Amino acid sequence: MAGWLFLLVSLAGTAIVVNAARPSRGPISLVPSWLLAFLTLDLALFHIGLALLIAGGFALAGGLETLPGKLGLLLTLASSAVLFVLWLPSLRAASAADAVAAELELDEVERIPRRLFLNPVPRVRDGVSVLRDVPFAQRDGRVLGMDIYRGSNHDGRRPGLVFLHGGGWVLGDKRSQGLPLCNHLATLGWVCANANYRLSPGATYPDHVVDAESAVAWLREHADEYGVDPDFIAIAGNSAGAHIAAMTALTGDSVQAIVTFYGVYDLTNRLGVHGSAFLDRLIGPHVVKAFFDTEPERFHAASPMDHVERASIPWLLVQGDCDSLTPAAEAREFARRLREHSKHVVGYAELPGAQHACDIYYSLRTFATVELAARFLVTAYRRARHS
After folding, report:
1. What is the pLDDT of residues 337-346, one digit of tens each?
2. Which of 23, 111, 178, 235 has CB atoms 3.0–4.6 Å from 255's, for a disulfide?
3. Which CATH number fits the domain that encloses residue 338?
């Protein structure tokens, strides 16, 4: 019995590794497949350790003495080896980030303590304080709040950042995303506001951008209270939050620098990188609330790709080359168009082997991604002050 049970567990583990290697792009399986891959790749060493620990437990129970148990052990060892190979590209994340930093001549900053790799779940770091649920706007009968991260040194004016979480415009929360970046910038002397915004389908574009602009305006209006330099507030976001941050930067003049992580830069799917469900089941009915066939102008108006000529601030884009939700081809094209039109620096970092949401918990890619973003923002602030 123990041998058969171990074989079933090994088959399940093998299926998880296969999914991580080749995540599904089907309209129904896309998100579950990505989620499973996201929880596997950057935590690969933990998965391998758990698999070997389980194998050891079944060995003590005598499960490996049977043929099913031996097959299970073979599957466990083979899948663990494959998973380790899938994890290896993360070792190149730092060099990819350093290459972009060298290209943009970015300042050096303090690094994230590598001991956090052993406990990857983000939390408030030592020396950082967080003010939770600070209200900044009232919309549609609800209060929108932000979490404000600050370091222990509160002297003088410090640059500010507004961070916007992802979640496909329909879910997500400030407590679960952007934590490594907000914590790290706080230790560097920044004031970071991790803000919520109205979610679809209750919210219709551009409600999300209106809320982001309100968060920036509120932080600037309360600059004296929180020690923020009102002349320099940056914005950042991941996935759908990156789209909202991009539209905030491109349709207004309230922010002085921007960092976008694996963002959505085109709601028309002109490059064909998204499946049909992207327009038909998400953007059309829930975000824009229109049909692309009859009102394409509304989708173009909501697409950063259509506003690149208005780019007027330093911009850093971070993308994974194995992203199954927001494929890298779209980010590459957007970065290319930004560089054609913007007079300011545009940096593009593509991390090898990285899946969507590769910066949520502490990993080698998170270290590389967050440190690159911090170097970019610190440099942008220094250059803005000197200019």
Report:
1. 999 999 999 9
2. 235
3. 3.40.50.1820
| pLDDT over threshold 70, residue 325 | yes
With a CB cutoff of 8 Å and minimum separation 6, the contacts of 12 are: none
Instruction: Give, in degrees to the nearest 5, the angle at Cα 130 between 193 and 257.
Output: 25
Q: How far apart are CA 29 and CA 25, in angstroms?
A: 7
- 116-139 pLDDT, tens digit each: 999 999 999 999 999 999 999 999
CB-neighbour burial class of residue 164 (10 A; exposed 0-12, middle 13-18, buried 19+): buried
Please indicate, yes or no, whether residues 147 and 259 belong to a single structural domain of this protein.
Answer: yes
Residues 193 and 228 in one domain: yes
83 and 136 share one domain = no
Q: Which residues pair with 238 in a beta bridge?
A: 261
SS3 128: strand
- Of 166, 332, 307, nearest to 249 by C-alpha is 307
Task: State how many domains the chain has.
Answer: 2
Q: Which domain holds residue 16?
A: 2-90
Active site residues: 239, 323, 356
Q: Please tell me the pTM assigned to this model.
A: 0.96
Query: Looking at per-residue confidence, does 3 or 145 come out higher?
Result: 145
Q: Is residue 299 part of a domain?
A: yes
